[in-house]
Design brief:
48% of the residues lie in helices and 12% in strands. The chain has 164 residues and is of the alpha/beta class. The protein has a single domain, classed as TIM Barrel (Alpha-Beta Barrel), CATH 3.20.20.70. Strand 2, helix 4 and strand 3 form a beta-alpha-beta unit. It comes from Orientia tsutsugamushi. Keywords: Heme biosynthesis, Lyase, Porphyrin biosynthesis. Belongs to the ALAD family.
């Protein structure tokens, strides 16, 4: 999330009497190629905003920046945080979970989902088993909750197989 945004949101909510409203901050959002499929669908080209998402998204090579951003967002009033993308940042999810006493949401992006989907469509892996494995690994890393494009398919698979 951009610097100071949580503080501004918290201040505005508090001033209007919404002191107990929970803020979920996109504290850890990396400048990632894994957003590609979503951006292509909605037509969100880099030219539609800043010349580069890197001006406000994190460098994927940096761990300390993520932890510092979470710390600042909590100080500004965030009640929980998102790590996005999830699968390639399991270490970050784990670090956030181990260093802060707040819920950590993981966001499995369109690119992460698409990798599994395309591999399954091309006979390289079983979609249901691969998506289940990816979600279980994200959970094992410490995610409190997970956003995924596979939610409905995964729920149907789990219900049909009587496993959770």
């Amino acid at each position: 999330m951009m610097d100071g945004r949580v503080k501004a949101i918290r201040g505005s909510l508090n001033s209007k009497g919404y002191c107990n409203t929970i803020i979920l901050s996109y504290a850890v959002k990396y400048a990632s190629n894994f957003y590609g499929p979503f951006r292509n669908v909605v037509g969100a080209k880099l030219s539609s905003g800043p010349s580069s998402k890197k001006t406000y998204q994190m460098d994927y090579r940096n761990t300390r920046e993520a932890l510092k951003a979470v710390e600042i967002n909590i100080q500004e009033g965030a009640d929980m945080v998102v790590v996005k993308p999830a699968m390639t940042y399991l270490d970050i999810i784990s670090n956030v979970k181990n260093n802060f006493n707040i819920p950590v949401f993981a966001y499995q992006t369109s690119g992460e989902y698409s990798m599994i989907k395309y591999a399954a469509l091309n006979g390289c892996m079983d979609f249901d088993q691969a998506i289940l494995e990816s979600i279980q690994c994200i959970k094992r890393a410490g995610a409190t909750a997970i956003f995924t494009y596979a939610a409905i398919k995964l729920a149907r698979f789990l219900a049909a197989n009587h496993s959770i």
